[in-house]
Design a protein that fits this description.
The complex is a heterotrimer of chains A (336), B (520) and C (348).
Chain A lengths: L1 H19 L6 E6 L3 H15 L2 E6 L2 H13 L7 E4 L2 H10 L2 E2 L3 H4 L13 E14 L24 E3 L4 H14 L1 H13 L3 E2 L3 H9 L5 E5 L1 H9 L5 E4 L10 E9 L5 H11 L2 H10 L29 H5 L1 H10 L5
Parallel strand pairs in A: 1-2, 1-3, 6-7, 6-8
Antiparallel strand pairs in A: 3-10, 4-10, 5-8, 5-9, 5-10
Helix pairs in contact in A: 3-4, 6-7, 6-13
Chain B lengths: L2 H30 L7 H36 L5 H7 L8 H10 L6 H8 L11 H12 L1 H12 L3 H9 L4 H30 L2 H5 L5 H7 L5 H26 L22 H32 L9 H31 L3 H12 L5 H13 L11 H26 L2 H10 L3 H30 L2 H6 L7 H10 L3 H31 L1
Helix pairs in contact in B: 1-12, 1-15, 1-16, 2-6, 2-7, 2-9, 2-12, 4-13, 7-9, 8-9, 9-12, 11-12, 13-22, 14-15, 14-17, 14-19, 14-21, 15-17, 16-17, 17-19, 18-19, 19-22, 21-22
Chain C lengths: L6 E10 L8 E9 L3 E5 L6 H9 L6 E6 L2 E4 L12 E4 L11 H6 L7 H14 L15 H13 L5 E5 L7 H18 L2 E6 L2 H7 L2 E6 L2 E6 L1 H6 L4 H6 L4 E14 L2 E17 L4 E17 L3 E8 L4 E7 L9 E6 L6 E3 L3
Parallel strand pairs in C: 3-8, 3-9, 6-7, 7-8
Antiparallel strand pairs in C: 1-2, 1-4, 4-5, 9-10, 11-12, 12-17, 13-14, 13-16, 14-15
Classes of the chains: A alpha/beta (336), B mainly alpha (520), C alpha+beta (348).
């Protein structure tokens, strides 16, 4: 016992010492809201091809954003790059004024629709909002062509949503931008009146659809691909709303450089790498996402995506409207 | 007052303050938050009510279930009881979100639970959500918090008390209610309190079961509406404080029975009662252990077949988890046990307040403690170099889980009687040697079981580990979460099973082996 | 088994054992007459406590039968659980319920009584054991003697048919033990309860027992009134266990045996080499002489205890009444002043 304890303490102290002096010149520190499974391989590739080391802290985007906020409030910068699962958390930090501008040459790699107008962040992969459904219960033809049809009586008690999740909140924010607050509030109230089942995240919705707890659920497209990769016998499929419908919004994952970063060059280099052909190919092939860089084709296995699908939404407004969106979701009685 | 007792008092006070710091942080943020919208507080009433309802229901059912199981294990000739003794505490090793996810997966068309229900001729529920299911599942995951301290208490219950009651005309059930229950009441209520705090701070299971509690509000609003988030956290604290004070009044000032048992207890002969007893244990295990584990095994099996799982990749996280679990348990005991001993021996206001702060730490969701400590380290010049280092992470564990070691440390301190300490003082002048050769050996069993609980909790801990760990520090819990979050079930299952294994092995060697040997 | 009306406890061929280990109690039969105290006396590990627990219903015999007041409570086909046997029991540790007051402890077994009757009975019991002043205290604050008296009152309160006592005084100090023993004897006589008392202390057994059953190795060696056991033990082991005994080697010629302390009359005719039971008080020192050398002297006031090494090398204990006559190293003459003596054929 004594030996064990001594070993434990020694190891703990050495580890503490080691990590405390990290952050050498040729390295970049990342807070990643994307989980390890979704990004570690491409980061490793980055290190192999550039020689720049990466140090990553993983967590939920919202938590990491809060951590960056507190660090900045204490007058320090512990991180160079923030990778967010959704525009909401980068928008939150942008509002606080704690993001550095992303260099123009990096911004230029993507179309203007998927980057910040004030150059504070840039999208690096896309997820399309879709309706996941249980193929044992429904046929594709029975499904609605617009997200607005989900307020029909027919779907009462059959819809799964994740109102507390960033992806749903971003989707509602986008709907406010494209359809206006009134229509959005009406839609939220209609959904609430249909007694939807709420879940923590997209993964839980897909799982619920697969065990027949719900018939349909509002999720990002790639969760069903993941679920099928795990268990090919699962009877769920994605349904796309019609082109231009706010229900088929493209949600981007975003990269930003944190104010006061000691390694802005390496940070920019990292983001450039994520937007390079091999980086974008990784997202397309390994994580079933849409590449965003100009000139990179979407993967074969995904339905084609054109930026018209986005419906001309200005992604800039996704971030600053977050608090209002949450209030609207709560007001509708969805406890978001 | 001598200088040394003065110093002890100041030290106790500082420890109390340390444990109270996240709570003070929450209150401060809740009060100073910028309130732009007005409707926030009304929005919290319903979740607060649901939290209270669920926590009360779960703690009551866990107290009943835990006590009954403890009695079966310790006082009857239940078949295979040394085996049950290990199996029945296993539910605490699964993080609640893993347990709930895996349990729910058991309800899918080809899941374990669906097959089991169909086997006995029942239709699996199409929906498993809301109060009832949350009540059931959280009870199934949390009753060991009652089972363990009550078993320990029963092990020291003199058999002559029960025998006297029987000879005075009490039936076995009568004697259980009139003698055994009062004897273990403090342990039952202490365990029930832990369960209550566990439920109010749980996020994973209630969220997956669609039962909206305050914790979900804290999470959902933590970025979009920080005022609401901190107000919700303050409400959680208020609930915890109420439960804490209530449990104190219910327990009252009953002197624990300090007479050491001389004879090994004669076990009640269950006879035909074996059948319902075994069925009951089987049902509890089926829900809390077999159902989740079978899903995990299916997922891991798929991953192993197509070679997606790389066990080697889990070695570092496993090592980190084990070291942090053991280290944090030792540090926690080092900090908590002296305060616990002081509350028992001296019972002064300082130590009692410090005790309250220690117990309250379990009620705050980990994310709140993590943020509080981050803010604290970042804004205290003397220690801000420690931000995102192991010591601060360990401190978060200590604050969050100190309460798990507190009760059994108090019991352990009671085992060192005043007479024993006086005679030790006459025989050995060095206080350090007395501590090493008298107090610690006598307290060992109690300390070990408290430390074991802390270790298990640390192994599962997620939010503080994610936010406060050094960059790049991976534990089994972070691996499990990261894989589950995006639906990498095979990886998640492999890491979960590793977590269960590590927890099981460490618990066996440090705690259980002794307990089983003692009562075999 | 002969059943007699005035017998409260009967055991017939009771054997108690577990698994493969030797029986703890082997083939024991015993009757306890009503309104008397029977003591089970024996060294630790002899099975006396196990036998008592079997009477209580806390152990189940492997074979044999037990009757309480002519009712079978345990045999091949019958098993009456302890709470149905109407027994009282006082344990070695007082086993008071720590969470109840003295009053509530005593009233524990009186649930079937109405409240007023219960209060009255508890008060009676408090009077009986003289503990009225501490009636509302918790057991933790009482002295050991007080605790044992509460335990006695608690077990007597429901008017048990039989009271069982399992070494109730062994945890107390010597003077308290003697005092409490007298008190308990008085109380038992006063209320006329049938009692079975377990002890390893011969003084206690003789002071309390109307009859004493001496146990050894799971069997009863001898049952009888204390004076019968003392005067007529069935074998040398019992002789020694129930009091100090000299076994003096001698040669018997029918009615008398010749020994190193002179001729001793035999209680029954024997011949050849014998060991004679000579209690120390049957010997006295008559003056200087050649019987032995004094090795040790202990002065008790009413008598003096000498250890004398006899001429044949044996150690003899002498309890001499009267004046102190010899010192260590003195060569002395001994006299046998007893009645006829028991003799057993010498072992070798």
């Amino acid at each position: 016992m004594t030996v064990l304890v001594t070993t434990a303490l020694t190891t703990a102290l050495t580890t503490a010492g080691l990590y405390a002096c990290s952050g050498s010149a040729d390295s970049v520190t990342i807070y990643s809201g994307r989980t390890e499974d979704l990004i570690a391989p491409i980061l490793q590739e980055f290190t192999e091809s550039t020689g720049i080391k990466v140090e990553v802290k993983y967590g939920q985007s919202a938590d990491l954003a809060l951590l960056i906020e507190e660090e900045q409030a204490a007058g320090r910068t512990d991180v160079d790059v923030f990778l967010s699962q959704s525009p909401g958390s980068v928008g939150y930090l942008d509002q606080l004024g704690v993001l550095e501008s992303v260099p123009d040459e990096v911004l230029g790699l993507v179309p203007s629709e998927v980057r910040d107008d004030d150059s504070r962040w840039v999208g690096f992969s896309g997820r399309q909002r879709v309706l996941v459904y249980n193929t044992d219960v429904l046929a594709e033809t029975e499904l609605p062509s617009s997200v607005f049809e989900l307020t029909d009586e027919q779907w009462k008690g059959q819809i799964g949503i994740a109102p507390g999740n960033g992806s749903f909140q971003d989707f509602v924010t986008a709907m406010r931008v494209s359809e206006g607050d009134e229509a959005t509030a009406e839609w939220l109230a209609g959904i609430a009146a249909n007694d939807p089942l709420t879940y923590e995240n997209n993964t839980a919705i897909v799982a619920a659809a697969s065990r027949g707890e719900i018939e349909v659920g509002l999720v990002n497209h790639y969760y069903n691909y993941r679920a099928l990769a795990e268990d090919p016998s699962q009877t769920t499929a994605n349904h796309l709303f019609a082109e231009g419908d706010p229900g088929s919004l493209l949600i981007v994952t975003a990269a930003a450089i944190v104010k006061g970063s000691d390694h802005p060059t390496q940070a920019a280099e990292l983001i450039t790498f994520l937007l390079s052909e091999s980086g974008q190919a990784y997202f397309a092939e390994q994580t079933y996402e849409y590449p965003l860089a100009i000139g990179v084709a979407p993967p074969q296995n995904l339905p084609p995506l054109t930026f018209q699908d986005v419906g001309g939404i200005d992604f800039d407004q996704l971030g600053d409207g977050l608090a209002g969106t949450r209030q609207m979701i709560t007001d509708a009685g969805l406890d978001g | 007052m001598t200088t040394s007792t003065r110093a002890q008092q100041i030290l106790t006070g500082s420890i109390g303050l340390l444990f109270a710091s996240p709570m003070l942080f929450v209150l401060w943020r809740a009060i100073t938050a910028d309130r732009t919208s007005t409707a926030q507080f009304d929005d919290l009433i319903a979740p607060a009510w649901r939290t209270l309802l669920l926590a009360t229901l779960v703690s009551c059912s866990a107290m009943v279930l835990g006590t009954l199981l403890a009695w079966l294990l310790m006082r009857t000739d239940l078949a295979g009881r040394s085996w049950w003794r290990v199996v029945l505490i296993l539910p605490v090793v699964l993080p609640s979100f893993v347990g709930a996810t895996a349990f729910l997966a058991g309800l899918s068309p080809d899941g374990f639970l669906t097959s089991a229900l169909e086997f006995v001729g029942l239709d699996p529920p199409q929906r498993f959500r809301g109060l009832g299911p949350a009540w059931m599942l959280l009870t199934a995951f949390s009753y060991p918090f009652v089972l363990m301290p009550v078993s320990a208490r029963l092990a020291t219950l003199r058999p002559s008390l029960d025998e006297s009651a029987r000879l005075l005309g009490a039936s076995p059930w009568d004697s259980f209610i009139r003698i055994t229950v009062p004897h273990v009441r403090a342990a039952v209520i202490g365990g029930g309190l832990i369960v209550f705090l566990y439920v109010v701070s749980d996020f994973g299971a209630v969220q997956l079961l669609g039962y909206d509690t305050l914790t979900r509000v804290i999470f959902a609003t933590r970025q979009a509406d920080r005022a609401t988030s901190f107000t919700a956290a303050a409400l959680v604290l208020a609930l915890a404080a109420t439960a804490l004070l209530l449990s104190r009044t219910v327990v009252g000032d009953i002197e624990p029975d300090t007479v050491q048992t001389i004879r090994v207890a004669k076990r009640h002969h269950l006879g035909l009662g074996q059948i319902p007893a075994l069925l009951g244990c089987g049902l509890v295990t089926g829900i809390s252990v077999v159902a989740p584990l079978s899903s995990l095994l299916v997922w891991a099996g798929r991953g192993l077949r197509d070679g997606r799982i790389d066990i080697g990749d889990l070695l570092t996280p496993t090592g980190n988890s084990a070291i942090m679990g053991l280290g944090a348990a030792v540090v926690t005991l080092g900090i908590v046990a002296p305060v616990a001993a002081r509350t028992v021996r001296r019972g002064d206001a300082v130590s009692r307040l410090a005790g309250l702060a220690i117990v309250g730490g379990f009620a705050l969701p980990g994310i709140v403690i993590a943020l509080a400590l981050a803010v604290l380290t970042l804004n205290t010049p003397a220690i801000n170099a420690l931000y995102q280092t192991i010591p601060v992470l360990a401190l978060a564990y200590v604050i969050h889980f100190g309460s798990l070691a507190f009760g059994s440390s108090q019991d352990a301190a009671r085992a060192v009687s005043a007479v024993l300490r006086d005679s030790a003082r006459l025989l050995e002048r060095s206080a350090v040697r007395r501590l090493l050769h008298i107090d610690l050996p006598v307290m060992r069993t109690g300390l070990m079981s408290g430390g074991g609980l802390v270790m298990l909790a640390v192994l599962k801990e997620l939010p503080a580990t994610l936010l406060l760990s050094p960059i790049g520090f991976r534990t089994l819990a972070t691996e499990v979460w990261s894989a589950f979050e995006e639906g990498f079930y095979a990886d998640a299952a492999a890491a979960s099973l590793m977590l269960v294994t590590v927890s099981g092995v460490l618990t066996w060697f440090l705690v259980l082996r002794r307990v089983v040997a003692q009562s075999a | 088994m002969l059943e007699v009306d005035n017998v409260d406890v009967s055991l017939a061929h009771v054997t108690i054992g577990y698994g493969e280990t030797p029986d703890v109690v082997h083939n024991v039969s015993l009757t306890v007459p009503a309104c008397s105290t029977t003591v089970l006396l024996g060294p630790s590990g002899c099975g006396k406590t196990t036998l008592l627990r079997a009477i209580a219903g806390l152990e189940r015999p492997r074979s044999g039968a037990i009757w309480l007041r002519q009712q079978v409570v345990s045999d091949e086909s019958t098993w009456v659980p302890p709470e149905r046997r109407n027994l009282g029991m006082v344990f070695q540790d007082p086993a008071l319920f720590p969470h109840l007051t003295v009053r509530d402890n005593i009233g524990f077994g009186l649930r079937s009584l109405e409240r007023s009757a219960r209060v009255r009975r508890v008060d009676e019991m408090l009077d009986l054991v003289e503990l009225n002043d501490v009636a509302d205290r918790r057991p933790g604050s009482l002295s050991g003697g007080q605790q044992q008296r509460v335990a006695l009152a608690r077990s007597l309160a429901p008017r048990p048919g039989v009271l069982l006592l399992d070494e109730p005084f062994s945890a107390l100090d010597a003077s308290l033990r003697v005092q409490l023993r007298t008190e308990v004897a008085t109380i038992l006589a006063e209320i006329g309860v049938t009692a079975v008392f377990v002890t390893h202390d011969q003084d206690e057994a003789f002071a309390l027992g109307d009859a004493v059953a001496v146990m050894r190795g799971g069997v009863i060696e001898q049952v009888g009134r204390p004076e019968d056991l003392y005067r007529s033990p069935t074998n040398p082991w019992v002789a020694r266990f129930v009091g100090e005994a000299n076994l003096v080697r001698g040669v018997a010629d029918g009615t008398t045996a010749l020994t190193s302390v002179g001729p001793i009359a035999l209680r029954s005719p024997t011949a050849g080499n014998v060991d004679l039971l000579v209690r120390p008080e049957s010997l006295s020192i008559v003056g200087p002489g050649t019987h032995g050398v004094v090795a040790r002297v202990e002065y008790f006031g009413h008598d003096v205890r000498y250890e004398v090494v006899a001429s044949d090398g044996a150690m003899l204990v002498v309890r001499h009444q009267g004046d102190h006559r010899a010192s260590v190293g003195d060569r002395v003459e001994l006299a046998y002043r007893g009645d006829t003596s028991l003799a057993w054929t010498a072992a070798d």
